[in-house]
């Protein structure tokens, strides 16, 4: 029993620390950098690292594939929030977004996905998201909304993510790889970020932040796809390293694209 609680504490501290560091950077460096940082696998990353330590590679591969499919639900979450946040309260923007995620995630968890079908689903959702939120993202590229992080906000965010990671890993065996992968894809870091910042910087700024985040979270899906494809042939260490590399390269490319001069 003591070993269980020590392990749980390590998980909570590790995941919470990762989220705090990412949050500080995201809120200090401005909207474009912030959108890219919060779209990195700062929550799901620790989940999969700890999952590798507890389960066979086949379990992790299946969870990553289902997580990749469920990443499309996160796309819907962001689209709904970005479309509603501009002139609505936090509850009226975030509530429907969370319901949209749930409405998509439940049927996604019941389907047997292949890498191709999961990719096509993500491409359709994120392609639609990029097209429908393009004006907001363009405005954000010219803006400079920066929110200074407060210690209380960071503690709340870290605690929420730590609890999420620890609970999910504790239940992963009972849930199975499909449900574990889907739940691990829930955008807990995005949710906590929106809760904290919506009132502080305003719905219009958060709508623009979500618009760029849509483009970044597609890269998170590619990270999960990489992990699914490589973990069994290459092993956990190389597969996790390759997945992280894909995430970083995608984000760097997106940053370079966002920093291009905007046509007037």
Automatic annotation (TrEMBL):
TM region(s), chain numbering: 6-25, 32-53, 59-81, 93-113, 119-142, 154-175, 181-197, 209-231, 237-257
Keyword Membrane part of the UniProt annotation: yes
Identification of the protein by name: Uncharacterized protein
Coiled-coil stretches noted in the UniProt entry, renumbered to this chain: none
Classification lineage: Bacteria, Pseudomonadati, Pseudomonadota, Alphaproteobacteria, Hyphomicrobiales
Keywords: Membrane, Transmembrane, Transmembrane helix
